[in-house]
UniProtKB/TrEMBL annotation:
Keyword line: DNA-binding, Transcription, Transcription regulation
Keyword Isomerase part of the UniProt annotation: no
Species of origin: Phyllobacterium phragmitis
GO molecular function annotations of the record: DNA-binding transcription factor activity; transcription cis-regulatory region binding
Protein name: HTH lysR-type domain-containing protein
Family: Belongs to the LysR transcriptional regulatory family.
Listed CDD domains: PBP2_LTTR_substrate (cd05466)
One Pfam family here: HTH_1
Domain HTH lysR-type positions: 4-61
Keyword Transcription: yes
Organism domain of life: Bacteria
Length: 302
């Protein structure tokens, strides 16, 4: 068997996770022919086809699927070795806040990857909406937080992660038009997160764009419960589109095509300037890696 290289495994891993040679090339800052060449070399070394052609796309073959987890473990090991810098090893306690909607979608793979990469790191997690997390972060009761639309603060660094696709979501039982305007929802029960949250501002701002206010606007501090109330048809609300994936497949809810649309919501890592540490850097880098694997967040508009 020919020698297998880290570069070949990277090309394979990112092509497999993004399901696209072009996206893998962008992720690795390489040309598409370079990625294709590395994949062919890897297949030749293993004497098997790792991908099957499906129309104009690709999918993992059975051998490719078997290789994926092994490739992930190798690349995780390389990242773990690279993270051990002269300024200290990663380990011990780190107190991390996560905005709830973002956490529902991303926290499981983030925590699993942290466990693999940094077995000596012990995250203590706080999950809530940004207005509830930020006071604890500013009081130094948290070391780091991943927040939706956080406020600026002179003592804290904001690191952009991307923008979270967000939509109006309604039970399929509601009889709504194909294109929905504030006039169409004004008389329906609406639910949002509490006053002060970006979710509340999104809802109020959307109706205000037409000079309107909803006749009924209830609030709930939990994004998960908000989504549950929407799923059961009690109210209509705004939350991350991916949270509705399973219900969309079941046909129990629909993402509303609205005018105006709901903008994607920005997600940032936030931590004190004077408290940057190997633990914080490890968390931020791991979250970036997981978001790239999930291909979840969109680019932040400038």
């Amino acid at each position: 068997m020919s020698r297998i290289t880290i570069a070949q495994l990277e090309a394979f891993f990112w092509t497999a996770t993004t399901r696209s040679v072009d996206q893998a090339a962008k992720r690795l800052h390489l040309s598409q022919p370079t990625i294709s060449l590395r994949l062919k070399s890897l297949e030749a070394a293993l004497e098997t086809n790792l991908f099957d052609r499906v129309g104009r796309g690709i999918r993992l073959s059975s051998d490719g699927l078997a290789l994926l987890e092994d490739a992930r473990e190798v690349l995780d090991g390389v990242q773990r070795i690279a993270s051990q810098k002269n300024d200290g090893r990663v380990g011990g306690r780190i107190r991390v806040g996560f905005s709830e909607g973002f956490a529902i979608i991303c926290l499981s793979p983030i925590l699993a990857k942290l466990h693999r990469l940094y077995p000596d790191l012990s995250p203590e997690l706080m999950v809530s909406t940004t207005p509830f997390i930020e006071p604890d972060l500013h009081a130094r009761e948290l070391d780091l937080a991943f927040l939706v639309n956080p406020t600026e603060h002179g003592d804290f660094r904001l690191v952009p992660m991307g923008a979270q696709p967000t939509s109006w979501v309604a039970s399929a039982r509601w009889d709504l038009p194909s294109v929905v305007t504030p006039h169409d929802l004004m008389s329906h029960p609406i639910i949002s997160n509490p006053i002060g949250s970006i979710n509340y501002r999104q809802v109020r701002g959307w109706f205000a764009s037409a000079g309107l206010s909803p006749k009924r606007l209830d609030t709930c501090n939990s994004v998960a419960m908000l989504a549950h109330l929407v799923n059961t048809g009690v109210a209509i609300g705004v939350y991350p589109s991916k949270m509705a994936e399973r219900e969309l497949e079941d046909g129990t809810v629909r993402l509303l095509n609205t005018v105006p649309p709901i903008p994607d919501t920005p997600v940032f890592a936030k931590y004190p300037f004077d408290a940057e540490s190997p633990n914080a850097r490890a968390c931020v880098n791991t979250v970036r890696e997981v978001l790239a694997e999930l291909n979840y967040l969109t680019a932040l508009s400038v």
